[in-house]
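Bug #77: duplicate submission created two jobs. Keeping one. Sequence:
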Amino acid sequence: MLIFSLQALTSCYSGFVNQMSVVSVPIRVQEALNDSKWVESITTEMRALENRSQIWDVMTLPDGKKHVLYKLIGVHGKV
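Kept job's structure:
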């Protein structure tokens, strides 16, 4: 277990850590979609990805082909 003291941090970092400790991170997508701040954050991130030099195009898979399955590991280490 890692234990640290906020006293070792500058006041700026200490304030940041205190703010982060009160942020609630949703575990399920539906929880995030019910919070307007998370929806705004998700939308901002999606726009940034879409506008980033047109990295990808959404396409229909050819007949007989399947999409690649993946697992998303969350901040709590759960799938």
